Amino acid sequence: MNAALAALAGIVGLAVGSFLNVVVWRVPRGESVVHPPSACPRCGHGIRRRDNIPVVSWLVLRGRCRDCGEPISARYPLVELATGVLFALTALWAGASWVLPALLYLAAIGVALTLIDVDTHRLPNAIVLPSYPVALALLVLASWNPGGASDWGALVRALIGCAALYAIYFVTVLVYPAGMGFGDVKLAGVLGLYLGWFGWGALVLGWFAAFLLGGLYSIGLLLLRRAGRRSGIPFGPWMLLGAACGIVLGERIWSAYLGAL
Questions:
Q1: What is the pLDDT of residues 123-182, one digit of tens each?
Q2: Which residues form the Prepilin type IV endopeptidase peptidase domain (predicted)?
């Protein structure tokens, strides 16, 4: 059952990844993600439906525009493939549960925000702010759990996690504004919703892992002389990766820690 669900989620992820390519390109530029239809930036020809099949079309066209031969970046199929794999792994981990839609939504915005932050060092409000009501609605559904036992305590934890992580990042920006921006603060609230829903251990580990992983990456850049002490790095990807660690491993590590005490 889980294998079939993962395969279906992977196929959906490929299609979502194709859309995310549009989001990553247009949202930072303030453009609509639905109009006009995608076209070759060189010759202006619209992308035909048969040339818009995730991954497959890029391979068939050998990475070039059908009309003018302009190279098409390999990033496009890689984003589609990565999103498909991420969706499949998420479905495999969560199974057929009501929390799965919430996690798939987080995976989708995670891919988009990671790429945008790497490209522009920004986390656009157009993606982050709508994620509050969307994530909350999906987590309400997960807490309600139609057909099973409801867990409204998880929703209360989610709201506390949202407020707590937002406050922590807000204070961090006030104390050390060079370290991160208010886009990170806004994203922290969304991630706090998810981490709090999964448990206090997830919340603590998700917060800690972001700074640990981001710090290790920064130290690596310094050692390799790829950055200086004043160089800025996008922190959004590390927040998202830390949240993933918290969701997957947080409660297990938290329980082991309490058991050791």
A1: 999 999 999 999 999 999 999 999 899 999 999 999 999 999 999 999 999 998 877 889
A2: 105-219
Burial of residue 217 (number of CB atoms within 10 Å: 0-12, 13-18, 19+): middle
Residue 211: both structure tokens together? 């700074």
Residue 232 CA, chain-centre distance (Å), reads 20
Compute the C-alpha angle 203/108/214, nearest 5°: 50
Beta partners for 71? 64
Q: What is the pLDDT of residues 1-53, one digit of tens each?
A: 789 999 999 999 999 999 999 999 999 999 999 888 888 777 778 788 887 89
Short-list 228, 233, 254, 206, CA closest to 106: 206
Q: Tell me how far apart the alpha carbons of residues 208 and 195 are, in angstroms, rounded to a whole number.
A: 12
Q: Maximum CA pair distance of the chain?
A: 66
Block residue for tokens 């010759």: 43
HSE-CB of 226 using CA atoms within 13 angstroms: 7
Long-range Cβ contact pairs of 185-191 (< 8 A, separation 24 or more): 186/123, 186/125, 186/128, 186/129, 187/113, 187/123, 187/128, 187/236, 187/239, 187/240, 188/239, 189/132, 189/162, 189/163, 189/165, 190/128, 190/131, 190/132, 190/135, 190/162, 191/165, 191/239, 191/240, 191/243
Note every long-range contact of 27-36, with CB atoms under 8 Å and residues 24 or more positions apart, other chains counting: 27/112, 27/116, 27/124, 27/126, 27/127, 28/116, 28/119, 28/120, 28/122, 28/124
Could you give the CA distance from residue 16 to residue 83 in angstroms, rounded to a whole number? Answer: 7
